[in-house]
Design a protein that fits this description.
Length: about 180
């Protein structure tokens, strides 16, 4: 069983209100609350469909047992540290030299370093893999994601009853195929 916990949430959106206003050619700020809600919904839908985290944040993957290889289900990410509950009940930080974290097929995968094995866990042991997630500002995939959010937000804003947004679906499919 595993769970992702937010340690430090993102500080901003992938697309600003100003950028969305420009996309919709809005001059005023009287619909900013609605526009912000649409931006958040579009970003959440994109992240859910792709497994990507767009904005920089710190997350923690919590596991109840070691597996031969741990796959972090969030992309892109960089492992910061691994802690576990040892057999004596204390929380121990696993030295970086004891594990190898590498990207394969778009995911970060963690396994014991050559000649090592995972340490023994306590009876109610917990493994905590802390990592930073999110794109660098100049990443081309972030540009695709931002375009998808803008077209989805515009579609939701202009068609408030709900309508399909083929441009969003196409851009999301492009992101999904790039991260396989």
């Amino acid at each position: 069983m595993s769970e992702i916990v937010t340690v430090e949430p993102p500080q901003d959106r992938a697309v600003t209100l100003e950028e969305a206003r420009q996309q919709l050619r809005l001059d005023g700020h009287d619909e900013d609350l609605l526009l912000g809600a649409k931006l958040d919904a579009a970003q959440a839908e994109l992240e859910q469909q792709t497994g990507l985290k767009l904005c920089e944040q710190t997350l923690e993957l919590q596991l109840e047992s070691w597996s031969q290889e741990i796959t972090v289900p969030v992309r892109p990410c960089v492992v910061a540290e691994i802690r576990y509950t040892a057999a004596n009940g204390s929380t121990v930080t696993l030295p970086e030299s004891h594990y190898l974290a590498r990207k394969r097929h778009g995911f970060t995968r963690i396994r014991p370093a050559s000649g090592r094995s995972w340490p023994e866990l306590g009876p109610d042991g917990l493994i905590e893999v802390t990592f930073s997630a999110g794109f660098a500002e100049n990443d081309p995939d972030l540009a695709i994601a931002r375009a998808a959010i803008l077209v989805k937000t515009a579609s939701m804003f202009e068609n408030r009853e709900g309508a399909a947004c083929l441009a969003f679906d196409t851009l999301v499919a492009q992101l999904q195929s790039r991260w396989i």
